[in-house]
């Protein structure tokens, strides 16, 4: 939980990405990285790689390409996932290298279905010791997964009916990329939410990375849009294009050329994946330099092309109280 | 119905049309992108205008998207949707048994429709690690019925027993799903590949060949299946797409030929 002294609803929690990750992500932490194929905190993940955080435990429903990067960089030693790989190439080369060959580090994978990930986070959300599990029975996932246990269903009419359960999990930190946040971390998100609303509330603390830093008045003008309240947030990082090459609803579309031909293609082989990380992660200081490098290589127009051009605006709603 | 077409068509077009005809009006379908989405979209445009589809990431849609999504989490799936939410909410509808149809795929399928998308070889000492279940296990367990779409070009995909059962079909035979506590009368209803269409025997729950696509022989199909595949008594050539279906696919649904 966030200490009262750090929770402050009036204090600014603005950090640089470097400082936020340095202060709030520790070796061995269980982390949840938000989004799915969109709203993915790529910039934060790349900073974790640059700071060489080790033995992280990754919990995710779909740990898509961003999980691929973290595993390839050797930051993760355990993954609690329903899906892991590079969603752009539909390959899981980095995962295979780590899981099968221990390159660059041995990766332990606990395979779940989506419902199990939801159940573990729901358990964490309500601070429950365990949650009965729906599904996975009959599949080979149960016997190969030491996290799933069986217990007696006390409400069943059947004697000693055994049901699978999973533990409640509270990630040490959830890193969520949102459209806009105020400087206290009250943050608006729209589009699909993936597991982010659940994981953010289940986590012990949250790092918000945002496309835009906005006034608290703007946030409070539409409180139903707030996905995570500032009291859960330890740090806010203003990081435009922080989800690139994924898409961000309202801001930019996915960079499929990059995801397929640059990062995706590179993931197929160890050497090329290492050069990818060298060029796009270790080789740049921060997201600003990443974007500069992108513009150097592909031209400003290529980046500009990703920006959404045809807005579909939602009329505002009335929160009047008298 | 319009008359049968004399036009040439691609196998992907044929697969979309077959899958689309499996969907009924007013059903709730779990579909995301690729051929399942094209099939769902086609059904919405033809015989199932009140069909609702739900994406794994959290969109509920009673209308087709403005453009074809390239991924299951795509901006075009949220725009103009009935609801944009998250995985916990849509998965809830699935595990409560409220979803009529789910689509599945995988690297291997066996005689009883079990699917593998986790690992080829043994789990402890695998040949190839795949991506894993995602929502597939949830769909296979809880959707009222599932439609499986697979590429059957290469041998080794239709196996006697899957190396790893990610998404249960009829497990080891009749009654086994019920014994494992699955909801009653659920399970795979058909398998659509680029070679033919397969269904499951009501009693034995074993997969059999229902139809073969134009230009494909039963012998060719049997060679791609590693068990002694049963053939329907009334096995026939797969009915072709109609001109109306092809025009919708090519002009309205996938004009850039992204999937078809």
From TrEMBL, chain B:
Pfam families: CoA_trans. The keyword Transferase applies. Keywords: Transferase. It comes from the Bacteria. InterPro entries: CoA_trans_fam_I, NagB/RpiA_transferase-like. Gene3D superfamilies: Glutaconate Coenzyme A-transferase (3.40.1080.10). GO terms for molecular function: CoA-transferase activity. Belongs to the 3-oxoacid CoA-transferase subunit B family. PANTHER family: ACETATE COA-TRANSFERASE YDIF, CHOLESTEROL RING-CLEAVING HYDROLASE IPDB SUBUNIT. This is CoA-transferase subunit beta.
């Amino acid at each position: 939980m966030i200490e009262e002294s750090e929770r402050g609803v009036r204090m600014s929690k603005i950090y640089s990405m470097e400082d936020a990750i340095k202060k709030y992500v520790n070796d061995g932490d269980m982390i949840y990285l938000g989004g799915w194929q969109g709203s993915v905190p790529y910039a934060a993940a790349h900073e974790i790689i640059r700071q060489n955080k080790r033995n992280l435990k990754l919990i995710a429903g779909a740990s898509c390409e961003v999980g691929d990067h973290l595993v390839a960089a050797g930051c993760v030693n355990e993954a609690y996932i329903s899906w892991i790989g590079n969603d752009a190439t539909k390959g899981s080369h980095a995962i295979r290298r780590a899981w099968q060959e221990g390159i660059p580090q041995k990766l332990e994978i606990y395979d779940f279905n989506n419902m199990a990930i939801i159940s573990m986070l729901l358990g964490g959300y309500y601070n429950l010791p365990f949650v009965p599990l729906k599904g996975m029975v009959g599949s080979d996932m149960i016997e190969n997964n030491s996290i799933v246990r069986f217990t007696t269903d006390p409400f069943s009419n059947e004697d000693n009916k055994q049901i699978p359960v999973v533990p409640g999990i509270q990630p040490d930190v959830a890193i969520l990329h949102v459209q806009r946040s105020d400087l206290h971390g009250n943050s608006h998100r729209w589009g699909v939410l993936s597991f982010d609303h659940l994981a953010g509330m289940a986590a012990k603390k949250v790092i918000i990375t945002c496309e835009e830093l906005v006034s608290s008045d703007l946030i409070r003008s539409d409180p139903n849009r707030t996905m995570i309240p500032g009291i859960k947030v330890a740090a806010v990082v203003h990081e435009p294009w922080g989800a690139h090459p994924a898409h961000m609803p309202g801001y930019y579309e996915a960079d499929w050329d990059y995801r397929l031909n640059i990062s995706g293609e590179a993931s197929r082989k160890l050497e090329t994946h290492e050069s990818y990380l060298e060029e796009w992660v270790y080789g740049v200081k921060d997201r600003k330099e990443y974007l500069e490098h992108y513009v150097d290589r592909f031209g400003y127009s290529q980046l500009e092309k990703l920006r959404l051009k045809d807005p579909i605006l939602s009329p505002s709603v009335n929160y009047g109280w008298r | 119905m319009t008359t049968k077409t004399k036009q040439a068509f691609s196998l992907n077009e044929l697969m979309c049309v077959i899958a689309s005809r499996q969907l009924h009006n007013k059903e709730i379908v779990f579909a995301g992108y690729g051929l399942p989405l094209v099939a769902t979209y086609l059904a919405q445009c033809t015989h199932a205008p009140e069909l609702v589809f739900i994406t794994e990431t959290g969109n509920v849609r009673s209308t087709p998207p403005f453009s074809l999504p390239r991924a299951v989490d795509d901006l075009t799936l949220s725009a103009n949707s009935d609801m944009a939410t998250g995985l916990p909410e849509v998965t809830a509808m699935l595990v409560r048994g409220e979803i009529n149809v789910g689509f599945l795929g995988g690297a291997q399928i066996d005689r009883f429709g079990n699917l593998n998308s986790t690992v080829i070889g043994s789990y402890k000492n695998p040949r190839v690690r795949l991506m894993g279940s995602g929502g597939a296990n949830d769909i296979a367990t809880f959707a009222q019925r599932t439609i499986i779409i697979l590429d059957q070009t290469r041998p080794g995909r239709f196996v006697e027993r899957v190396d790893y059962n990610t998404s249960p079909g009829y497990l080891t035979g009749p009654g086994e799903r019920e014994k494992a506590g699955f909801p009653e009368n659920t399970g795979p209803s058909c398998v659509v590949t680029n070679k033919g269409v397969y269904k499951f025997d009501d009693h034995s729950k074993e997969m059999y060949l229902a139809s073969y696509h134009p230009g494909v022989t039963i012998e060719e199909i049997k060679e791609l299946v590693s068990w002694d595949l049963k053939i329907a008594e009334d096995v026939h050539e797969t009915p072709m797409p109609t001109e109306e279906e092809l025009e919708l696919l090519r002009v309205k649904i996938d004009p850039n030929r992204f999937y078809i």
